[in-house]
Amino acid sequence: MMLNIAIExxxxxxxxxxxxxxxxxxxxRDENGDFYTGLWKDGKKHGFGTxxxxxDQVSYKGSWEDGRRHGEGILYxxxxxxxxxxxxxxxxxxxNGQGINCYEDGGRYExxxxxxKRNGYGQMDYxxxxxxxxxxxxxQRSGFGKMWYSDGATYEGYWDNDMxxxxxxxxxxDGFWENDLKHGEGKYNIKENGLEFxxxxxxxxxxxxxxxxxxxxxxxxxxxxxxxxxxxxxx
Length: 235
Prior knowledge:
Elements: E1 5-7, E2 16-18, E3 25-29, E4 35-41, E5 44-53, E6 58-65, E7 68-77, E8 84-91, E9 94-102, E10 108-114, E11 117-125, E12 131-137, E13 140-141, E14 143-148, E15 154-160, E16 163-169, E17 173-178, E18 181-190, E19 195-202, E20 205-213, E21 222-226
Antiparallel strand pairs: 1-2, 3-4, 4-5, 5-6, 6-7, 7-8, 8-9, 9-10, 10-11, 11-12, 12-13, 12-14, 14-15, 15-16, 16-17, 17-18, 18-19, 19-20, 20-21
Keywords: Cytoplasmic vesicle, Repeat
Subcellular location: Cytoplasmic vesicle, Secretory vesicle, Acrosome
Organism: Larinioides sclopetarius
């Protein structure tokens, strides 16, 4: 198939005029300096191709449909095909299905996506060394999942709107959460000094119950009853 290509000479970035918009394979540089090399159909990117965005300093290599990323593909950082930003499945120019995303702070997510957001089951390794494995909903932790914190603490329980919420079974605290705060019946163990709080928690504060402390003069722990304290002070 013959192409009629004209090259314009000006101070602007070089771009090509393609008279045959149904060419099977071609390279185009637009007025923004962005490049596309690959397959076309009906004047749109369609099939396998590579797009380079100079302003954003990223490039995409993979499948296209009707001018949008669709199917398997990889998004790379500028000037390298070894350091990827994300790779996986795309639908109508957005990540959809299984995929991996790498973040600038060193974090990494691998799992399910929907409409360019983490959605479904996946693992998130955070830049600070923490890890979460469990379900996501619209880019937020949601449902029953487990979190390993960088300080060694763990949380295994329910999440809502990216916050701990509901019942939890962990190394230090075993009880209920609400809006990322200890709230309801629970038991809290402090390994450093052997203290154990068992009772009612309200907004992350121990309200009432039993405090167990190590008793060097007796074979078992000392149990202290903590009365219920209600803060009636108003602002």
